[in-house]
Amino acid sequence: MGDVREILNRKQSSTLRCTQPDETVLTATQRMNEYGIGALLVMDHGHLVGIFTERDVLRRVVAAELDPDAVLVADVMTADVACCTPDMPIDDARNTFQQHRIRHLPVVDEYGEVLGLISIGDLNAYHANHQEVTIRFLNEYLHGRV
């Protein structure tokens, strides 16, 4: 099995979608809707300070009946962000998703600089593709084409 770098390299968009801590929840969620994504990295002067997800909106804004135009991302974001490195084995990344019960995982280098973001969907797509290749190989092997 490969590493997280392989997933990052396969992603169609390498553009990081971010917000700032002082942006309103309404503006951040409108950006998420515009790009059809479920999370934004919260960056402050080039440093990762949190992640803002759909779950944050539901639990900390909607359920608390707060006005999204009056609440700042910093007040409702997840500040304790689980991260991974590009050389992390994919099975370890899957364990990180499961242990932290998260759907998005920032990828950082040894200096803490954000290189990308992977989702549980990216991981599942990678596994599905890997399984298809294995099945195709085994099928050709069984029929003497290898």
Chain-wise SSE layout:
Blueprint: H1 4-10, E1 18-19, H2 25-35, E2 39-44, E3 47-53, H3 54-62, H4 73-76, H5 90-100, E4 104-108, E5 114-119, H6 120-142
Parallel strand pairs: 1-2
Antiparallel strand pairs: 2-3, 4-5
Q: Could you name the key traits of this structure?
A:
6 helices, alpha+beta, CBS-domain, 146 residues, two-stranded antiparallel ribbon
Walk me through what this model shows.
- The chain is α+β, with helices and mostly antiparallel strands and 146 residues long.
- The protein has a single domain (4-142), classed as Roll (CBS-domain).
- 45% of the residues lie in helices and 18% in strands.
- The chain has helices spanning 4-10, 25-35, 54-62, 73-76, 90-100, 120-142, and strands spanning 18-19, 39-44, 47-53, 104-108, 114-119.
- It has a three-stranded mixed sheet. The chain has a two-stranded antiparallel ribbon with strand order 4-5.
Low-confidence stretches: none
What would you report as the Rg, rounded to the nearest angstrom?
18 Å
User: Outline, from the CA principal axes?
Assistant: elongated
C-alpha termini separation: 22 Å
Strand portion: 15-25%
Q: How would you sum up the major sheet?
A: 3 strands, mixed
Short synopsis of the structure:
This protein has 146 residues and is an alpha+beta fold.
